[in-house]
Amino acid sequence: MKYLTQLLDKKVYQQDGTLLGKTIDVIAQLNARFPSISAIHVQYKESLLYIPFDCVEFEDDPEGPSGAGNLQSDLRLTIPVESVPAYTLPPNTLHLRRDVLDKQIVDVHDFRVVRVNDVRLAECGTGYCVVGVDASLRAMLRRFGVVISKPIEATAHLFHTPLRANLIAWDDMQTLEPGTAEDPLRLKVSHDKIARLHPADIAEIVEQLTPQQRVEVLESLDDETIADAIAEVDPDMQVEIMQQLDLDKARDVITHMEPDDAADVLDDMPDSRSDDILDKMNPEDAEALNRLMEYHEDTAGGLMTTEYVAIPDHITCEETIQNLRALAPRAEMIYYVYIVDDDNRLVGVLSLRDLVVSPPETIINNIMVKNVIRVHVDDHANEVAQVIGRYNLLAAPVVDEEERLLGIITVDDTLERLLPQERRRRLPSTAWQDAQND
What we know:
alpha+beta; CBS-domain; 35% helix
């Protein structure tokens, strides 16, 4: 295996030994799992010339690129310069120096953003291909010609800076869209790679990017994934991102967020921006968010979501199951089925187990638990946490003064509010895990 920097700024000789120029870049084609090296970019007198890679060999290697060539050597054409075929840049190519070297990339394996200090090359068939990048200090020193001796490694170890290679496989990198001279790098993350990550991991990546990069990364994802990821980032950054997004995009993202998360984000925004987003939304959804925003964030009202499953007390188990199938609620919404009367007052609760094992014709009122553990909308978040913990609940219903059901608070929502920001992302997300199994 060799490195890109061992190919750059090398002398290129004509077949007869006359100096032609020097390499200024290496071209890789995104035509396979690992991009293949297709050409070198040469400074030729006062002009630039693309030379197909199969027209050069390493000067001390008569077998050319397919042999055991030393990539630190200079290059020589295998045919006369006037016979070099014209090379037209095909679609989906990368200039490795311009587009990758010294640029930031997303490592989707370790959920981090790193600077590329070198590009790893390997023999592939009759040529070379890109197999990964090196983000280590060792790669940086190698570029400056520093020989990594044992004394240097020992010194680095004293300063807790090991000189190990930090190789990131090409498969674990985000895909980079080939740039231009004016716009050398545009981050374009592979939807398949990023979308499969946990939202907390996406958030960890996003927080390491520049504001412009954040938007470019997020806009490559679907609205639901963006919504889940934004819910995991720091509140100040949530506001920053939502203000950068196009107004229609911001509306779509808010629409896909959990109501309690969406209300928190909107509440933290400048009034003018949140009003603009709400004006773009469905009136019923906007009204529901406005109601949530009226509650203090440290109360049950500020923690609850208005998405829950409630059914009347006079229907059968079979009808209830049919209703659940039609609603297709998310996992966190059906920890329990809540029972309400005609005035939406909470009168009972039913576990999914009791629903499933009961005869289909059984009336819900006959099997529901009538003494429902509940919290009131103005209860403090700490009181809510105590109730959920004391009774080992997965979710608690929230009611007003007249016992009308307003929403539910899940155990996740309670912990997220009470735990420090850096520990919240460690919480398992039942909804996300369920989505990955669909």
